[in-house]
């Protein structure tokens, strides 16, 4: 099945996803969650929910997330309600504070890795030497990890970055053998052990499904 | 085979060679830094002078360009690896020649955090500036910090964190020092990508250092103040 152009990974990484401009509720989310959010909305028949995604690459620049979210909320026009499909995402509580100030709800937990697995389970594991990939990050490994860290030009830096890590944990949202192999290859490139953990959509689905009842 | 445009380091005069070392550090050219370090030593330069003028001077430029967004982490790491290679040659000689020591620092990444790139850079720059540094590595609980500070007879405690989820642990360490009545015996410096000055103040650190160069300058300032207080 071919991916529609607006859900192309490179596009979601750099530009995000524009809203359709129709619906009572607007979800403003990370581009790394676009396909997953649309799948959840679709399977639950949540046609009253519109989606705008900010560029996924903000994941690598947490300091830019809060200003981008503030702008997106200010630009949201004609919706009854806004929901942020972001966790803390490295903002150190600043996104939560901004969301409270703006009067919008958001996802709980530190990262997408946490809410996909279930935040309590994720925190209980306390895996300090695990490096996580999701479906999106496995597909976009080069854009989010390999190139920004300069490993494409200087593979000798791998030890400096990943020498203290032990395992690459691939949290799979879907059953996709080709993507699993891709994630396994990412682990090999980083010199880490590989573990696949099927999570489905986890707390992202739970949170979005409540939009049906409100 | 050498190309006619290649620079022969041994043919450069001292001033040109130091300038070339700054350029080579900037470009992360480790073998060239090692070669030039040996050349300066062979010409009778004191190890401390090679360290400060050639290596630290070069890394200062790298640090400034990193701060200004001209260089990025990979380039800084390559430069640091080159400086480290030069320092490996100088270190035994510095020990023999009794280079000045400004103060002693224990540095480590906090519990739950395995990221050590920043603290390794700080360690190197502090050593280059004349501090003795005990780097206790990653994932340090409060007791490990306290034991190291005592055993090493440290003046300064440096704590590092890369994660927003682990940086609050710095306050646990400082609060424990307060409870034990030893907080004012040490200069506490904190750093790491998600931190800021406000956080440093809120947890009771003496200063937040946004990069390795700032850490060195801050440590020097606090040590000078400490000496002044002691002699007053």
UniProtKB/TrEMBL annotation, chain A:
Taxonomic path: Bacteria, Pseudomonadati, Pseudomonadota, Alphaproteobacteria, Rhodobacterales
UniProt protein name: Uncharacterized protein DUF1638
Domain DUF1638: 53-207
Annotated InterPro entries: DUF1638
TrEMBL record, chain B:
Protein's name according to its UniProt entry: 5-methyltetrahydrofolate--homocysteine methyltransferase
UniProt GO molecular function: cobalamin binding; metal ion binding; methionine synthase activity
B12-binding N-terminal domain location: 8-102
Pfam families: B12-binding (PF02310), B12-binding_2 (PF02607)
Family assignment from sequence similarity: Belongs to the methylamine corrinoid protein family.
Gene Ontology cellular component list: cytosol
Species for this entry: Silicimonas algicola
Ranges for domain B12-binding: 102-232
Record-level GO BP terms: homocysteine metabolic process; methylation; tetrahydrofolate metabolic process
Domain of life: Bacteria
Keywords: Cobalt, Metal-binding, Methyltransferase, Transferase
